[in-house]
């Protein structure tokens, strides 16, 4: 489904990604872990088409399509969703209107009919209930006045409504308490299936206790230096990154 080969990228003239090779088959969840400044968030931004990041080499295809040649809205229509580490506030933009506009845009791209207000609210209320959110959040402006946990749950609400084929979760667990972490993880797990894949970027093993990945990758200095199963995350939690980074440096 997603195939990345030799991907390099920079921002403001500084190279961040230095040759990423990664394949995520359909229906799998992959976790990316690594120290600060390794390039984890940059990878998610490049894949989603965030402005300011320049791809300098390599390829990234999604179901055979060159996503690097696509605009961000085209990537979203193709089924790629990014949950931000720091969700932005949109004063004056109602949460329900924002969600309905985004959902109908994606539905049009898929050749599906748009949802009217009644149909949308029925789906939105069901999703809000599943995520243990208050329906009042649908009436508020996007992320305005939301707590950190509410912002992250709102990102998962968007994912639940949009039903992407690939979700890029950029440190969705940061700033969450245990209850909010569990609720967010349950929202992700509810989407898991043969038509859903995810790239989960995290610093902490605790999230992966709830969202058990098929594979874990260690990203350091712009490269994936080691891959393994869920047990790799437990090793990192116990021993840190220094040993693995040292081994990679010796092998280079």
From TrEMBL:
<dbReference type="GO" id="GO:0005524">
    <property type="term" value="F:ATP binding"/>
</dbReference>
<comment type="similarity">
    <text>Belongs to the ABC transporter superfamily. Ycf16 family.</text>
</comment>
<keyword id="KW-0067">ATP-binding</keyword>
<dbReference type="InterPro" id="IPR027417">
    <property type="entry name" value="P-loop_NTPase"/>
</dbReference>
<dbReference type="InterPro" id="IPR003439">
    <property type="entry name" value="ABC_transporter-like_ATP-bd"/>
</dbReference>
<protein>
    <submittedName>
        <fullName>Fe-S cluster assembly ATPase SufC</fullName>
    </submittedName>
</protein>
<dbReference type="InterPro" id="IPR010230">
    <property type="entry name" value="FeS-cluster_ATPase_SufC"/>
</dbReference>
<dbReference type="Pfam" id="PF00005">
    <property type="entry name" value="ABC_tran"/>
</dbReference>
<dbReference type="GO" id="GO:0016887">
    <property type="term" value="F:ATP hydrolysis activity"/>
</dbReference>
<feature type="domain" description="ABC transporter">
    <location>
        <begin position="2"/>
        <end position="246"/>
    </location>
</feature>
<keyword id="KW-0547">Nucleotide-binding</keyword>
<dbReference type="InterPro" id="IPR017871">
    <property type="entry name" value="ABC_transporter-like_CS"/>
</dbReference>
